[in-house]
Records
---
Amino acid sequence: MVHDLELVSVGKTYADGTKAVSNFNLQVEKGEFVAFLGPSGCGKSTTLRMIAGFEEITEGDILIKGRNVSATPPEKRPTSMIFQNYALFPHMTVRRNVGFGLDVKGLPRAERDRKVDRILDMFDLTEVADRKADRLSAGQRQRIALARGLVVEPEILLLDEPLGALDANLRRIIQNELKLLQRELGITFVFVTHAQSEALGLSDRVVVMSNGVVEQISTPKELYLRPQTPFVARFIGANTLIEGRPLASEGGALGKAFNRIDTALGPISGIGPSGSTLAVIPAEAFRLAPEGQPGEMTLPGRVVWKQLVGATGHFRVRLANDQEIGIETHSDTARAQILDVGAVVTLGLDPGAVTLMPSNP
Ligand code: ADP
């Protein structure tokens, strides 16, 4: 099967010796929306620039629609890139900014004008087409950048933190527009962001990176419910991480697995790095119950903080090992059970929601 985009063991070492990306493998299908997510400096932009051809690859290969483009210059690749600051020409009109890529390709004037008019209309920019780009609002400039990227009809649109410069409100509006647009056009989008909500909300799959290495490639839901590495477990969502040592023999059921964790919450001694295990529990998996109402699996604790916000009750509960965890529950439940600060509680949780992983993979 030919993938729209394929990265095969791609790596990048900059001239000064900085190893920015290592052994990056990814296959993207036509029309997919993929986000690269990770903290600043983890190699997201470097990877995007390698796909666009602005940065040379030092290891591996990049294929677009089965064709190896590793040595192809950016203007010969079927990609368009949208930059965080939009990189518009401030003194050119909107129309000339949008038509720039077509001029570079040497398109006949009539055809260029037809394509530009169509895309200006699509992005609601017709009325401002003859204004200078620097006279427009942030939202309009964002749309110009998108129009300019799409008018050349790329196979793949590469977006480098394209919403970073917008305020929160506009960001939300444009996020929605972007998702609708992507569905409508069926173009493959590769999107770089350090904002978790943006990556999880917009994309079909997320590539989580840390220190130049791919940690996990999953759907947003899987990433949230089934983190595969300690980094992802800490970075995504609001997981509780409990470290312990397996007490039963390997291959026990999940119920058994929890017993091990439960036991580990008592006096913990003699846990060396080898065999050290991390239990990852999503915040939603916990249920708060007053003492004496054990769930399938239980952890005793004491409420140390609470706040009711609308329909949601937020709690911090201190466990027997002094670890504090955050829990959310419906505020009616919280009120009915009078779970005030100081209350002794039992946390119930679904064993199936617990993910176990080595703590030092
Ligand atoms: P991100 O987009 O995730 O913030 P980058 O891809 O920009 O990360 O950077 C990854 C690493 O490569 C960082 O350590 C950064 O300092 C380094 N880096 C980026 N560009 C260059 C460059 N031109 N020369 C040397 N090192 C660079």
---
Amino acid sequence: MKCRKCGGKAAFNMRQHKLALCKEHYLEWIPAQTERFIEKYRMFTHDEKILVAVSGGKDSLSLWDILWKLGYHADGLYLALGIDEGIGYSDESRRLCEEFASKRGLTLHVVDVLGDYGHTIPDLARSTHRGKDKPCSVCGLVKRHEMNRIARDFGYDVLATGHNLDDEAAVLFGNTLRWDGEYLLRQGPVLPAAPGLARKAKPLCRFCEREMAAYALLSGIEYIYDECPFAVGSTSIYYKELLNDLEHERPGAKLSFYLSFLEAKKKGLFAEQREETTAGLNVCQQCGQPTSALDLCSFCRMMGVGV
Ligand code: SF4
Ligand code: ZN
């Protein structure tokens, strides 16, 4: 297989795009495409301050690397969740993020959930009703709250996450199976800011998992290979496998599933839901983020802040 740009030996072949590229041209193509998506979906501009949520995995570190190479003002945020499970998952992922930032002279914010709030995520899950066997709903709540807090406290214009096409297609598949209008309405490459909430953007949403793994590998980015131990056996992994089977038979099916959804949304397919989802929210009296409760948001209530 030959590189379409230079005719040299291809390092990576993308069946869905009918495109094979050598290492050098692949490492140019991914950032150029990312820039195109950032502009197309109006995610952010070169004058804005971007906070990249990094987990130590290939997607978020690649995203930070790409934004840095494209000359964006992008700082990192790592949330130390205290997930150990015998493999030191959080410690190792933190080390990789810190090393990544220091090698490139970039700023990394670290929020240590145990140090700042006195609990690890697994502890919190055990002590609330939320985490019967897995701490994921508590973890999601803490991540959303803390990313948003740091973005607002430090004056970032936008919060960027490393969600790739496989992640987005799996979420879309789940939402579609339930025809969950509220979630479908909120899903997309960019979510505008709302009172108390920072704008969110997913610049990698059109690249599949394989493409990001190849980018990280070919760029020599050191990342944590293990998934979070609690991700094993999750519904989203099952959906990803189903979609990969489909993709194997019909290359491009995953991308077209996602892009057709965006197209349908643009045509107003879910528009009548808009009022319902934004109406009726209050402001948390402790942290100022939106909540459906009258006094404290779920995060502040769980952490026992201000009570
Ligand atoms: Fe948090 Fe791990 Fe669950 Fe992801 S899989 S939500 S990181 S506990
Ligand atoms: Zn709150």
